[in-house]
Task: inverse folding
């Protein structure tokens, strides 16, 4: 399940994460989850989520021990009901009067708190060897890292992205704990800027390929469309807009791929500079091209099979990420002790889940 | 007896152990230590493929059984709902049936369930809410795109008379109808209906109309949208589809999510086209009753498509059926009602 090789020091061990889940096995779990979720008009989704995460965590191994997910479905359901109700009320208010759009300011102010509570909940629900993770955030820290820095990144046209990545990962790493032991992340700026440089080259490559493809497809489609419409004016108009739309779609695709490429690089840098309890070191060597390729081919496989290959795709991604992650352990891992820690808030966690906002790879 | 590992409360230390169920209760035996009687029934994690089951004792200590160990047999309990579910998840026959059932159910919900629910929800939405939505939307569009109408008094009065005549002929049930004239700005020649009965006609559209019947036909079309609650139904259908995607896409990756959301947005255009055809039929019936030419407004639509380039064109082309098909459908509907113009 994991490979233990004795490292340089007498009791330094290079441990690798591994995932033993199988696509066929997960397909059964996934389809039953789906069926029960539909039949119960969505109520079962809370149980489905717990079962899905228990499967993925439970089949992830390190040093002969597996991870575990502990959330109680009824609490997840409660969180979801609260979040959905709030979203409905917000949308109703906005459609009644645009004035309520100002609630966005309140949202921005609450966002750091929500994020901390969400990460605390998700950490608290995760355990390894009978000891749980925990997260103790600070409001001002999260405000700076997750509100101010993204804004600065946009204003600097992405030039500050490595600084934002460094601060975000350091923030998460330093506030994360395993029982009484603390993690510490010190992502170096140089490596992050090198990653940005590689991403820029990647974007140029992909943009050339995608917009070229988009141009050809756009021109072709608009020609066919124009001819079918049987009007010279329409033909002219569409010929002139088809390639532009094609190139725009291509550019959008390039940016999405670039984000994936960049995020994989950041993960490597952050993990490789994270320690636990001042001694054990995390490691990550995700291939950036490989990661983008896995996600893109997963997308096509999923769409072309109308979703039926989704379980295979999910297992494939998880297995790759697990196998690319390691821990350089100094001595045994049996001295960790659990302690009291913030429980977090299930509503906050479900808010980010429902909104599809996901931090970390 | 089951052999496994034991973790002391709150500790990551794994100790080889075995667990026996005797007449006194559960007895935990740790390597090189005395037996310990564990009082009460431990909490047991649900069975799941590949995952070792864990028993948490009253003091927080955890016994981990190897995957596949017969915990339920040891504890002499019947496996619960999830034990049976774990069996079903492994059965290829059941999984195949479930897959077919999921696909079938999703199709039924999408094709019939959501439209039906949307119609029901639209019918029970309180008029107060609908009126408030009208006020909000009007406030927004007035501030952003529209300005007061620049049509002369006489034309405005004539338009109001036509509108009054038409609205007097529809059943009074539903929201109060009212006509607003606006200079459309970037919207150009257009007409829109808000759910609460507010119908807005832009100056450009009026100028483009060559006969009263043309503009009356468009007004009748918009009245159709209001009376058949199309905007509300559209809102609820979009909500319904969003909810459906949320339920089925629980574990979808960000990429899949993005693509599906785009597809759903595209789908609402298909719904919109259905509503347009309904409103056309409503317009034809109302115009025939009013003794006006029910096909005239299609000429006006042709002219809009002809004159508008750029952005307004895509709106018309994509949310509304093509004018050729439309003319055909309108003619057929009019003839069906005995119109012979």
Result:
């Amino acid at each position: 399940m994991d490979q233990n090789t004795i490292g340089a020091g007498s009791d330094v061990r290079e441990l690798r994460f591994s995932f033993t889940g199988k696509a066929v096995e997960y397909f059964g779990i996934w389809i039953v989850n789906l069926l029960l979720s539909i039949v119960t008009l969505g109520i079962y989704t809370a149980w489905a989520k717990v079962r899905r995460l228990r499967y993925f965590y439970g089949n992830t191994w390190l040093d002969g021990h597996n991870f575990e997910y502990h959330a109680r479905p009824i609490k997840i359901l409660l969180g979801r009901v609260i979040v959905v109700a709030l979203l409905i009320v917000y949308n109703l208010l906005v459609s009644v009067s645009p004035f309520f759009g100002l609630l966005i300011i309140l949202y921005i102010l609450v966002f750091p708190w929500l994020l901390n509570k969400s990460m605390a909940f998700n950490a608290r629900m995760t355990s390894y060897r009978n000891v749980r993770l925990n997260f103790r955030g600070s409001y001002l820290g999260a405000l700076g890292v997750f509100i101010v820095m993204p804004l600065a990144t946009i204003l600097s046209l992405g030039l500050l992205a490595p600084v934002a990545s460094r601060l975000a990962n350091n923030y998460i790493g330093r506030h994360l704990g395993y029982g009484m032991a603390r993690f510490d992340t010190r992502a170096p700026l140089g490596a992050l800027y090198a990653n940005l440089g590689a991403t820029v080259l990647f974007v140029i490559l992909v943009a050339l390929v995608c917009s070229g493809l988009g141009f050809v497809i756009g021109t072709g489609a608009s020609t066919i469309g124009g001819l079918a419409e049987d009007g010279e004016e329409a033909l002219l108009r569409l010929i002139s807009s088809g390639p532009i739309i094609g190139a725009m779609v291509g550019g959008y695709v390039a940016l999405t791929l670039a984000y994936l490429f960049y995020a994989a690089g950041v993960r490597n840098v952050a993990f490789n500079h994270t320690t636990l309890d001042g001694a054990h070191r995390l490691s990550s060597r995700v291939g950036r091209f490989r990661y983008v390729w896995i996600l893109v081919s997963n997308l096509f496989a999923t769409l072309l099979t109308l979703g039926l290959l989704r379980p295979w795709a999910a297992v494939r991604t998880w297995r790759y990420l697990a196998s690319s992650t390691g821990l350089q352990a100094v001595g045994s891992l049996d001295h960790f002790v659990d302690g009291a820690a913030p429980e977090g808030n299930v509503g906050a966690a479900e808010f980010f889940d429902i909104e599809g906002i996901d931090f970390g790879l | 007896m089951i052999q496994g590992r034991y973790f002391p409360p709150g500790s990551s230390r794994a100790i080889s152990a075995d667990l026996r169920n005797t007449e006194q209760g559960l007895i935990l035996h740790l390597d090189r230590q005395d037996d310990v009687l564990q009082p009460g029934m431990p909490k047991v994690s649900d069975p799941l493929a590949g995952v070792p089951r864990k028993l948490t004792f009253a003091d927080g200590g955890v016994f981990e059984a190897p995957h596949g160990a017969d915990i339920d047999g040891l504890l002499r309990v019947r496996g619960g709902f999830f034990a049976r579910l774990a069996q079903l998840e492994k059965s290829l026959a059941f999984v195949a049936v479930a897959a077919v059932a999921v696909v079938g159910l999703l199709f039924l919900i999408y094709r019939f369930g959501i439209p039906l629910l949307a119609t029901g929800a639209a019918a029970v939405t309180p008029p107060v809410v609908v009126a408030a939505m009208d006020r909000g939307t009007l406030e927004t569009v007035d501030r952003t795109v529209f300005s007061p109408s620049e049509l002369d008094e006489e034309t405005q009065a004539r338009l109001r008379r036509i509108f009054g005549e038409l609205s007097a002929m529809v059943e009074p049930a539903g929201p109060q109808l009212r006509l607003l004239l606006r200079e459309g700005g970037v919207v150009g020649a257009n007409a829109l209906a808000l759910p609460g009965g507010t119908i807005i006609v832009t100056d450009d559209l009026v100028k483009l109309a060559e006969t009263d019947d043309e503009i009356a036909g468009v007004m009748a079309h918009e009245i159709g949208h209001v009376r058949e609650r199309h905007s509300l139904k559209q809102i609820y259908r979009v909500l319904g589809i969003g909810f459906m995607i949320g339920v089925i896409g629980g574990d979808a990756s960000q990429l899949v999510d993005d693509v599906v959301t785009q597809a759903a947005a595209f789908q609402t255009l298909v719904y919109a086209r259905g509503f347009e055809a309904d409103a056309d039929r409503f317009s034809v019936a109302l115009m025939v009753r009013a003794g006006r030419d029910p096909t005239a407004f299609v000429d006006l639509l042709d002219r809009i498509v002809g004159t508008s380039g750029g952005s307004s064109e895509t709106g018309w082309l994509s949310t509304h059926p093509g004018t050729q098909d439309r003319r055909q459908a309108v003619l057929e509907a009019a003839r069906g009602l005995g119109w012979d113009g």
In short: DSSP finds eleven helices and twelve strands in chain A. The longest strand of chain A covers residues 325-330. Residues 1-9 of chain A have pLDDT under 50 and may be disordered. Residues 257 and 292 of chain A are 7 Å apart (CA to CA).
